[in-house]
Amino acid sequence: MSFRNLIEPLYERYIRLQCPRVPNHIAIIQDGNRRYAKKRGIDTASGHRAGADKTEEILDWAHELGIHHITLYTFSTENFSRKKDEVDHLFGLFKEKLSQVMQDKRVHEYRIRVQIVGDRSLLPDDLRKVIDAAEASTREYGDFCLNIALAYGGRNEIVLAAREILAEVQMKNVNPESIDVGMVEQHLHGGKGIPPVDLIIRTGNDYRTSNFLPWLASGHESAVYFCAPYWPLFRKIDLLRAIRIYDQRVAAKNGGNNAR
After folding, report:
1. Nearest CA-CA partner of 150 in 115, 184, 101
2. Judging by DSSP bridges, how do beta strands 144-152 and 69-76 pair with one another?
3. Is 254 among the residues known to form the active site?
4. What residue ranges of the chain have pLDDT lower than 50?
5. Residue 223 belongs to a domain with what CATH number?
6. Of 24, 79, 156, 258, which residue is the catalytic one?
7. Which of 28, 86, 160, 254 shows a CA-CA span of 20 to 30 A to 221?
């Protein structure tokens, strides 16, 4: 056993003791799959697969730490501009991983509800069918929730919500004067009831939030943690460091009690 393998679990426990407050909802921008592949001298498809495998580890970490909602930024509306071969491979990978959801023991043991957020009209029919099946297989669960952002854009989500509300107004089901923050939130993400984001994590050493969940994150002043590891190299210890940032921010907002 290497020194790192010996010391890292001890350091994880040390950080965990520093974080009495755990965020209810963490949103992760999974950046760096392609750069990871380039650095390793492997093809881009292998880099994306390594990232998808890392996503599966998150299920165990979230359950262990008591994080009830995780939203993963998997494919943005801007990603459609990538080469067709890469996009097609990603869609195939999404289909494969979502199909596995229905047989994944952890999903059913932990009672994880899987939901897709984004503009499904932009996705191919075969992928939409798998999405529908994965969501249906976990619809009755609610102990934990894994939200996967596909064909997602922060501004686009607000536009879609505005269209839905406008349609309600035109049908005279909604009085324009009654439109408020609560009503907008009810129409976001297809009415899935996703709670405010407490913490955004971005991997890959890039310092921007890429318009991810602007209403639920920026609107609720979530904590933000940027880290260097590419997504396939993201470790539990990185997650704990991010939670420590969240804990420190909550302590500061509460008047400095227990601030570190």
Report:
1. 115
2. parallel
3. no
4. 259-260
5. 3.40.1180.10
6. 79
7. 160
The pLDDT value given to residue 191: 81
Closest CA to 67 of 243, 210, 257, 216: 243
Look at residue 1 in the predicted model and tell me its pLDDT.
54
Would you say 251 and 26 are in contact if contact means Cβ atoms under 8 Å apart? Answer: no
Evaluate whether residue 114 is within a structural domain.
yes
Could you tell me if residue 119 is inside a domain? yes
pLDDT digit string, tens, across residues 233-249: 999 999 999 999 999 99
Instruction: Print the SS3 string covering the chain.
Output: CCHHHHHHHHHHHHHHHCCCCCCCEEEEECCCHHHHHHHHCCCHHHHHHHHHHHHHHHHHHHHHHCCCEEEEEEEEHHHHHCCHHHHHHHHHHHHHHHHHHCCCHHHHHCCEEEEEECCHHHCCHHHHHHHHHHHHHHCCCCCEEEEEEEEECHHHHHHHHHHHHHHHHHCCCCCHHHCCHHHHHHHHHHHCCCCCCCEEEECCCCCCCCCCCCCCCHHHCCEEEECCCCHHHCCHHHHHHHHHHHHHHHHHHCCCCCCC
66 class by beta-carbon count within 10 Å (0-12 exposed, 13-18 middle, 19+ buried): exposed
pTM of structure = 0.90
pLDDT score for 8: 82
Of 31, 104, 198, 247, the catalytic one is 31
Active site residue 211: no
pLDDT of residue 260: 46
Is the residue at 171 inside a domain?
no
Q: Which domain holds residue 49?
A: 21-153+194-252
- Domain assignment present for 167: no
Q: What is the pLDDT of residue 256?
A: 58
- The structural domain count of the chain equals 1
